[in-house]
């Protein structure tokens, strides 16, 4: 039954009838987002902390990583991992290839957030922990990074939304995510506007939920604590 | 008594500015020393060099009969390694002008964490020591407050407790009341006076509080332009300064 919104006729019912594959697509998108986010977070810390290493070689490697993944297209990186690497005998299934490409890409951006957050912690905190004879590892682990995390969280939240949106390109390497499913519905129903309108709304709902989760995490990390943000104090 | 700290012709410059010029200084074990003098005269730099926060350009610093910034390896005197500095740092504690408490930890966690991480104490030993110290600084009712919930004077007392918890042989106090509102200065100085009277720890304090220096110190050093101009007991130095520079400096405080 056509429904009427702003004078335009939509065939929503035909699209909604495909709800089982829309749910599958939503689940795949969420799995892809969560796995990529975990990889991106790990890379963010490894590369971000390498940027401030006292060893020059470590710093240089981190910069090469950052510039490579930030400076080239995520889609091309994904094609490279999925289509080119098998030519050299390295095979990944589509989901793994997608997670690696998205994780590595967002990890590059995330490393700048980690670096910025750590550098925002004042020199006096380094001196205080040195005076208490903390080793460099303990200094970062127990003093500097715990203070840097609340500073990082809002920017990480933005990156997480970027990551979610980037997962849409994974449909191009046959991952059956939301965008992939929209294409299927489009082919089956010959409708174009409606399937994409539906997934637009679903992406928006997922993004809103992620924003809420990041807010809760941010509150948890700042409860009862004086978060030092650069420029304050 | 033995010298616990020796500076032997120590020089230190920041760019063009020479903050220590061939400085010689000896501090006896257990001595309470007050360093006074105009700003930029190198007093704080002495503490920062001892805390290994600042390197030296030339000369030798010894702590407890061992070089601080050098190491003797096969009869050769070489620049100190990180490992050596870490060993030496264990004997020294410092309290900073800006308190520098860890803002993400409560007051008691600030005092417990270094004992557990550095001194390898277990939770209950660290807690017991921390509670004794909070009793001593008069803040037993504030142990679970975060630093930003405490006044400047209270934060500074916690910082003193945190440094003492590490049982240092030498305590360094760097203008510990300079960042405080005037009405909060006395509560911090009271803790330090009590410490100076009760403990045999060697203490060096940089201060602009002349009355406090008088009560606290066994010996007062007057610094100017990177050198010790005059040194003596508080009584000698404050009531009967010999040098013209000392006299004109002290006049500003009377």
What is this structure, in a nutshell?
Chain A has one domain: MetI-like fold (Orthogonal Bundle), CATH 1.10.3720.
From the spread of the alpha carbons, the general shape of chain B counts as: globular
Count of strand segments of chain B? 12
DSSP summary: helix tally of chain A: 9
Give helix and strand order of chain A, one letter per element, not per position: EEHHHHHHHHH
* Spatial extent as radius of gyration of chain B: 18 Å
Task: Please explain how this structure is put together.
The complex is a heterodimer of chains A (233) and B (254). In chain A, 74% of the residues lie in helices and 3% in strands. Chain A is an all-alpha fold. By secondary structure, chain B is α/β, with parallel strands linked by helices. Chain B has helices at residues 43-50, 82-89, 107-117, 123-136, 152-164, 182-198, 210-216, 234-239, 244-251, and strands at residues 3-14, 17-28, 32-36, 58-63, 66-67, 70-73, 76-79, 92-95, 170-174, 202-206, 219-224, 227-232. Chain B is globular. Chain B starts with a strand and ends with a helix. The interface between A and B is medium-sized, with 21 and 26 residues.
Layout of helices and strands, plus pairs?
The complex is a heterodimer of chains A (233) and B (254).
Chain A: E1 3-5, E2 8-10, H1 12-16, H2 19-50, H3 56-71, H4 74-84, H5 94-119, H6 123-131, H7 136-166, H8 178-189, H9 193-222
Antiparallel strand pairs in A: 1-2
Helix pairs in contact in A: 2-5, 2-8, 3-5, 4-5, 5-7, 6-7, 7-9, 8-9
Chain B: E1 3-14, E2 17-28, E3 32-36, H1 43-50, E4 58-63, E5 66-67, E6 70-73, E7 76-79, H2 82-89, E8 92-95, H3 107-117, H4 123-136, H5 152-164, E9 170-174, H6 182-198, E10 202-206, H7 210-216, E11 219-224, E12 227-232, H8 234-239, H9 244-251
Helix pairs in contact in B: 3-4, 3-5, 4-5, 5-6
